[in-house]
Amino acid sequence: MKYKNTKLREGDEVIVITGKEKGKRGNIKSISGDKCLINELNLAKRHTRPNPQLGITGGIVEKEMPIKLSNVMIWNNSTKKRDKVAFKIEKDKKIRIFRSSGKEIKS
Q1: CA 78 to chain centre
Q2: Residue 95 lies in a domain
Q3: Does residue 91 sit within a domain?
Q4: Is residue 45 part of a domain?
Q5: Residue 70 backbone dihedrals phi, psi, to 5 degrees
Q6: Tell me, what's the pLDDT at 2?
Q7: Using one digit for the tens of pLDDT, what is the confidence trace for 86-105?
Q8: How far apart are CA 37 and CA 85, in angstroms?
Q9: How large is the average pLDDT for residues 4-19?
Q10: Is the dihedral of CA 67, 68, 74, 75 positive or negative?
Q11: Residue 53 region, left (φ>0) first, then alpha (ψ -120 to 50), else beta?
Q12: Number of compact structural domains in the chain
């Protein structure tokens, strides 16, 4: 099944609601399928082999690992709380709004 998420987009500020990173906030770097990468969150150590042709030095590197989209919620900066996303149609255009306040989500 192809997963299409329209509620969260790249660049949105989100808060993690479950897991070891619970309560931490960050911006979505990329979304692929039902997972997303968040800047500086869910770091794991990876052992990399040096590749002089590409200029990669070997060693232990910290890398961001994906988090499921069901484990993050959008951050509402005006209320300083997590929030749900709703949709509103204005002039044949579908816009995202915060469910609690009804304000448009700027992205």
Answers
A1: 19
A2: no
A3: no
A4: yes
A5: -70, -15
A6: 60
A7: 999 988 898 999 999 889 99
A8: 19
A9: 89
A10: negative
A11: alpha
A12: 1
